[in-house]
Amino acid sequence: xxxxxxxxxxxxxxxxxxxxxxSLKFEKWSSSxxxxxxxxxxxxxxxxxxxxxxxxxxxxxxxxxxxxxxxWKGQIVIDMLETEQKTDYLTKSHNIWKSQYALVDPTGTxxxxxxxxxxxxxxxxxxxxxxxxxxxxxxxxxxxxxxxYSVLYYLMMQAAAAAS
Length: 164
What we know:
Blueprint: E1 2-5, E2 10-14, E3 20-26, E4 34-38, E5 43-49, E6 55-60, E7 63-70, E8 76-80, E9 87-93, E10 101-104, E11 110-119, E12 124-131, H1 141-163
Antiparallel strand pairs: 1-2, 1-12, 2-3, 3-4, 4-5, 5-6, 6-7, 7-8, 8-9, 9-10, 10-11, 11-12
């Protein structure tokens, strides 16, 4: 899978064959507010929650489906609220140079490896996504896009910390 940036603050998720799987569109360039669209025409909103906006809620209509929070280790915890069993995924650095990120399930298994590719001349990221072959049926485009959002959120926080 790959995620490419379009010219309108939008990231498009495509399969290796080029099939549209979904998109993430941000309200503003530096905003944490975004809307996710799946290949089936479902819409989800990413909205900051709390006084300082320290967590992000993913909602579909009136119901919250996930909450994203950064923990003290610099990882993003993805709490899937709609599942019967509480499922927490982690988005964390995959290597020491923080050039790749992994989506990890509650058992510690890496489901995805997300590799950002910064386009210096255009000033944005594209992403390469490698799915663990043992878990291809467990991964859906919603989870992949939430993981990509969490990596973008992490990179935005890193840039803000470096700027201050």
